[in-house]
Amino acid sequence: MRALGIDYGGTHTKLLLLEGEREVARDTVDTVRLEGLADQVSSFLGDARPAAFGVTVAGTLDPVSGVVGRSANLPWLDGTAPARLLSQALGVPGVAVQDGEAAALAEARIGAGRGSDDVFVIALGTGIAGAHVSGGAVRRGAHGAAGEIGHLRVTAADHACSCGGRGCLETVIGGSQLGARWSERGGAGGTARDVVAAARAGDEAARAVLDDAARGLGRALLALSALVDPALVVVGGGVARAPEWTVEPALAHARAEATFHTLPDVAPAALGVWAGAHGAALAARDAAAARPADASSAART
Amino acid sequence: MRALGIDYGGTHTKLLLLEGEREVARDTVDTVRLEGLADQVSSFLGDARPAAFGVTVAGTLDPVSGVVGRSANLPWLDGTAPARLLSQALGVPGVAVQDGEAAALAEARIGAGRGSDDVFVIALGTGIAGAHVSGGAVRRGAHGAAGEIGHLRVTAADHACSCGGRGCLETVIGGSQLGARWSERGGAGGTARDVVAAARAGDEAARAVLDDAARGLGRALLALSALVDPALVVVGGGVARAPEWTVEPALAHARAEATFHTLPDVAPAALGVWAGAHGAALAARDAAAARPADASSAART
User: What are the structural domains of chain B?
Assistant: First the structure.
């Protein structure tokens, strides 16, 4: 079937039209409000008509009603049901999916996790996101909080975290935290990229910051092995782009502290910035498969 | 169907015969080697003939082959397939199940977790065991290690753990560790019961030991909420028998440190020392349901 994935991001929106797994078209447009998005999608599609679409939500989402709780970057979505509104405008059935969940679904099913049915996806970005994809679906947990590996407490250095807690993995490896940790050790601060560049150039403080980060990620991987024990961990996100300073030393720390644990295989994410759009298209297809046959398909039989 | 549960423990063996959920008979006998166990079972059954049995293994078990890896308490089981051997002796099909898994399965399905489909069971005993029961089955993980909540690192006090690691939950709340922690603080040492009795009597060192234990369990519950997010946690085991000194303060610590987390409901285990035998009977029933119809049942249709 033909499925449209819409990755409705904070600054850019990615549009991806798939026929089965074959890519028909893709485009990246500036993010606008919902009415404008329907126009962008119509002109992207031209004469092509997908059977269903999926749209990502950068925020909290009630997976049953499809209503957005809160989107920090797209505040006009708060309280709306974006898939329903777009569906009315486009005349095509659609489904909303949380953006991190969409990316994880895609990486697990058609990206680096293809072929494994038990994948934990970690996004090492400004914040840290995680999702366990098992049986082809994201395991959300009883209260929608499962997979929050970024908020495991991994260090006695009690830095305040964005979640309100202290000592979380995000405080030692979050993209927006690495520079702060470097400043505290007398470094120049800046982005994750700046810290990695300084470490490469031999800066001892930057190296110590990245070692703390890797130790924290190693501890989180051990906790993940002990509680969830996935077959494969897929790691993506900007901070993972320098694996020799992040993921590889984290695995070395985890191996050094492992006892009964069998560490998962670890692979880099494969879909890059298009993971969300792919995941939205997959969610569209899953929803279409779960939907009862409609009038037109009933007429065909 | 009539199912027999055999909980083959280190010193005592529990035999439980069920017709559906109704108890037909139960008995507790001294643990003997496997040949003797077959005789004990035969005389327990008399004329009653179960459709299937389950037998617990106190040790590591390959769930596919049914072969025991290592049993510390019943060393004659190492390398054997106890369900196959018993099955030959009794003329009844049977299945082996790891003892902690059996108890967790029973607590989740017919004990304190009845009615919930997403239960994490924690046994606070000499060691700490855990298992996530979802969809009616224990989630074993890719390498059979899932659920090992006792070996989450929850404290910077780096006591050595039975697993070879340091700072695990078991080092602050394991039944065999509480006395050691109390001794280190100048207490008299002894069993978990001794530490609790001293705390009740006002001993400050014992209270500090139990507060460390509760803080560790609280941290583990937060990690469990963040990664697995179960609906319900069922807590059993000897150490949980004094909930006002263990589980209740642990929940208070967890609530004080929770941020985005929605803590699970927490309930005490309901089946007591018979949980393993009930779980073995459940495993027997599950295996019978999964087994292709045999000749006799095919003849009946």
Answer: 2-102+273-300 (3.30.420.40), 115-270 (3.30.420.40)
